[in-house]
Amino acid sequence: MSLLYYSLFAAAIVAADQFTKYLTVANIALYEDVPFIPGLLQLTYVQNTGAAFSSFEGQQWLFALIFAVFTGMLVYEYRKNTMGFTKLEWWCIAAIYGGGLGNMIDRVRMGYVVDMIETTFMEFPVFNVADCFITCGCVLLMAHLVLCNPGFWKTKT
Question: What are the helix (H) ranges across the chain?
Fold first, then answer.
């Protein structure tokens, strides 16, 4: 599969993420709660200067460094194919990358990430569309590597 397809998928994720963040900022006041799916989700505009669960708050340089290293590793791996990822695994990686890029755009542009999706049925941090793609991409990637690609874990001699 061409790198173009994975890049377009990641770009579509970035576009969807940035569009939902734009709608949030344009239509919801900071910390305002707007019912979305009663009993499940509400929209709450939050500005997150950290990472997951507000960890590493204010460490924008660290996020940029990690993202730059991750980008370099992906380009190297795609060119050399040393790990032997399957097409599905590359789609998962593209989802993770697209989500990471969506959040990195916020960090560079505004110094924080716009979060807006809040669960009402359990206590959980507010998150955004990019976070959904990062999480789902990671879970699916790990599940596929464990269940469907056991050769990935074997040491190469």
Answer: 3-27, 60-80, 87-110, 129-147
